[in-house]
């Protein structure tokens, strides 16, 4: 998995930009470039918003982004910025990620109530469901001295897409071990004993020591949340199923179900 270009979503609602801070840190370590994307959320039409006014506001917003990027660029990281005006800014992020050939999207995240999640599609959900590259949702700013990572996979589903997703999750986890000297754990949940995975095979696939491979009975989201809290994980990596519409509302996916139950960062792999 190549990580050459990051797209970072600017959060205009607060001064602190944890996603930008984390992306800059990782980009500096691995030599990736960084593209900061901002979106003015609103209706372009209206008597007070002619073409020149829109151009002025876009320019002012981009100047703010460039000011945030200046110290990052001074450290030798290749940076760029972009601003759009779009009512559906989360969809604009998805398009920008594809247009800029981003290898990963970084976005600051915060906890939503159950009501907020049910009554409207949050930007986090939209990105997870629609983005074609991995999405890293950042909830904290300072990474621990030794990151502890929990990767959730399922080797009981033997279809090509799931096998490929498992391999992508494991490959990325191995890369983190090499680049960040992280402590990686793998968990495989199973709903009943008929689907209990082969422990020996899971150890072989992950390449991890036996004490870092966990097989637990239960629903994936509940098991992953429980294990992440028990291990005090700083990052949880999970696969993403691209559901939309009624299926997404009723069933969601594991990434969505765990997002507001964890205080750590979450990486959703497509």
TrEMBL record:
Residues in UspA domain copies: 4-139, 201-268
A GO cellular-component term linked to this record: cytoplasm
One Pfam family this sequence matches: Usp
SUPFAM superfamilies, A to Z: Adenine nucleotide alpha hydrolases-like
Primary location class: cytoplasm
Function: Required for resistance to DNA-damaging agents.
PANTHER family attached to this UniProt entry: UNIVERSAL STRESS PROTEIN E (PTHR47892:SF1)
Family in the record: Belongs to the universal stress protein A family.
Protein name (Swiss-Prot/TrEMBL): UspA domain-containing protein
Protein species of origin: Pseudohalioglobus lutimaris
């Amino acid at each position: 998995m190549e990580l050459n270009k990051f797209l970072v979503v600017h959060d205009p609602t607060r001064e602190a930009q944890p996603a930008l801070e984390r992306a800059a840190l990782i980009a500096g370590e691995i030599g990736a470039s960084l593209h900061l994307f901002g979106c003015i959320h609103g209706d372009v039409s209206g008597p007070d918003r002619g073409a020149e006014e829109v151009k002025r506001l876009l320019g002012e917003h981009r100047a703010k982004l460039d000011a945030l990027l200046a110290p990052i660029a001074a450290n030798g990281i290749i940076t760029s910025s972009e601003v759009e005006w779009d009512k559906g800014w989360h969809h604009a992020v998805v398009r920008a990620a594809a247009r800029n050939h981003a290898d990963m999207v970084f976005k600051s995240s915060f906890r939503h109530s159950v009501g907020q999640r049910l009554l409207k599609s949050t930007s986090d959900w939209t990105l997870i469901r629609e983005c074609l590259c991995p999405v890293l949702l950042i909830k904290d700013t300072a990474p621990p001295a030794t990151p502890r990572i929990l990767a959730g996979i399922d080797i009981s589903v033997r279809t090509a897409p799931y096998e490929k997703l498992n391999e992508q999750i494991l490959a990325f986890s191995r890369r983190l071990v090499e680049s960040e000297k992280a402590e990686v754990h793998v968990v495989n949940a199973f709903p009943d004993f008929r689907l209990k995975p082969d422990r020996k095979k899971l150890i072989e696939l992950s390449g991890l020591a036996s004490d870092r491979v966990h097989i637990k009975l239960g629903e994936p989201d509940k098991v992953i949340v429980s294990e992440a809290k028990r291990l005090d994980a700083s990052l949880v990596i999970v696969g993403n199923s691209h559901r939309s519409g009624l299926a997404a509302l009723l069933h969601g996916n594991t990434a969505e179900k765990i997002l507001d139950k964890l205080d750590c960062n979450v990486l959703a792999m497509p």
